[in-house]
Amino acid sequence: MLYLVLFSTLAIGFYAATTTAVQIVGNERRIALAQVAAESGMEFIRYQLSQVTIPHGISPADLFPTVYAALETQLNGTGNISTIGSDGTIIQIPASPGSFVVLDYSGSCFRATIENMGAKVRVKVVGWKSSDNSVTRAVQMDYGLAEKASAIFDYGVASRGRITTAGTAIIKGATDPKKGSILSTCLTDPTPVSIGGKEVSGDISVTNPAANVYYSGASVGGTTDPVVIARDHIHKGVPEPEFPTIDTSIFEPFATNTYSTVGQNKNHVTLDNCRILANTNPSFTAAVTITGVLYIEAPNNVTFGGNLNVQGLIVVQNNPPGDLTTNSISFNGTVSTQGVSTLPSSYGDLKKLTGAFVLAPDFKVSFGGNFGTVAGSIIASQVNMTGNAGGTVMGSVINLEDTVMNVSGSSDITIASTGTTDYPAGVYFSSHYVPLTDTYCEVKP
User: Fold this and answer.
1) What pTM does this model have?
2) To which H or E segment does residue 292 belong?
3) Exposure of 145 in the CB half-sphere (CA atoms within 13 A)
4) pLDDT, tens digit, 9 for 90 and up, residues 163-193
5) Helix (H) or strand (E) holding 246
6) In 185-228, where do the E strands start and end?
7) Contacts of 445 (CB under 8 A, 6+ apart)
8) What is the C-alpha to C-alpha distance for residues 433 and 421, in angstroms, rounded to an integer?
9) DSSP type of residue 223
10) Which end of the chain is more exposed for a tag (fewer CB within 10 A), N or C?
11) Are 443 and 138 in contact (CB under 8 A)?
C-alpha cells in the first residue's frame, strides 16, 4: 500500500508538471506568434513606405496627405486589406479599428498605425493571433525621408527626347568607353536614337521595347559589326530612370550684382556673381569672363559670341516663364571653364556647390565652338552641339524634355560622368521613407 501511494503521488506530480510545462509552452508560442506577427507587419509597412514617392520641394502641409494618398493607391482593395483610413494625423491600416491583416493560415495577424511626426512618420504595429487576442505584442519605429538614387548619371548622354548624331560627331568616355553610353526615353518617335556620326564608345539604351535604333556605318561599343552591335550594345525596353529636378535657389543668394552695359569694357566683359534680368537678351561679341555664378532670369536669349572664360557656373531661375523660343543660352565661341571649387576663399560657401556647369531647365542650350574641359554636368531642356563643338564634360549631358538633342558636324564630346555617387549641387530626385533603425522598440499594444 505504501508503494502504491508513493507511485500514485509521483504520477500525479509528473502529470501536474507536464500539464504546467505544456501551458507554459503554449503561452510562449502565442507570445512568439504575436511577436512575429508584429515584426512581419513592420516589414510589410516598411516595404509599402519605401514605394511612396515624395516629390522634391513638397510643402510640409502636403507631405502627410501625399503619403496617405499613395498608400491608398497601393493598399486599398488589395489582398486582405479593403481600405485604409486617416484623420489627417494618423493613418489606420486597416481603416476599421476591429479589422486586421491576416498573415497566414495559422491566424497570425496585425494592424498598423502611421503617425504624422512632421518630416518623419512613426509606425506602430500590433500583432496577435486572431483566434486568441488575449496575447498581443507591439513594435514601433520611426521613418525618415531619404533621396532616391537614380541611374541617370550612369549615362554619358541622357535625353527624354530623340538623340541624333551626324557628320563626324563622336561621343566617347574619357577614362572608360562605357562612360560614352547614351539613353533615350522617348516614346513619341519610333526611332529615338539615330547615330549618323562616327562613334558612340558605349552602349545605346532606349525605353521603348519596340524602338528602331539607327547606327549605319558607326562604331558603337567599340565595334562596327552590325550583328555584334545589335546583339551586345543595343538595349531596348530599359526602365526609365528618374530625371532630376533642378532647384537653383541655393545659387540665387550669391548673384548679388546686376548686369548692365554701363561701364563695361567693349573688348572684355566681366560678370562676377552676376544676375541678368529678364528680357535683357544680351549678345556678347567681346571676350567674357564669368566668375562665381551667372544667374539668368527668364525670358532671356543670351549669346556668347566671343571667347568665354568661366570660373564657376551658369544657372537659370526656378520655374522660368517662356519657352524654348524665348529662353536660350548659346555658346558660339571658344569656352574655357573651371569649377567653383577653384574660386578664391572670398566666394565662401559657393565653392562647395560643385558638380554643374549649366543648369537650365526650360532653356535651350547650344554649343557651336570648342569648349575644352567643362567642369560639371550640362543639364537643360534641350541641348545641341553643332559645328566644331567639342571637349570634355566632367559630368553628364542631360536633355530634360522630349525635344531632339542633336550632336553634329565635327563635334567630339568626351564624357567623364560621375555616376550615382556624386550628384551636382542644385540637382535633386524624389524621396522615399527609410527606417531609422535606432528608434526601433517594443511598446505597449
Assistant:
1) 0.85
2) strand 287-296
3) 20
4) 999 988 899 998 889 999 999 999 999 999 9
5) strand 245-246
6) 193-195, 199-200, 204-206, 213-214, 219-220
7) 126, 128, 136, 137, 138
8) 20
9) B
10) N
11) yes
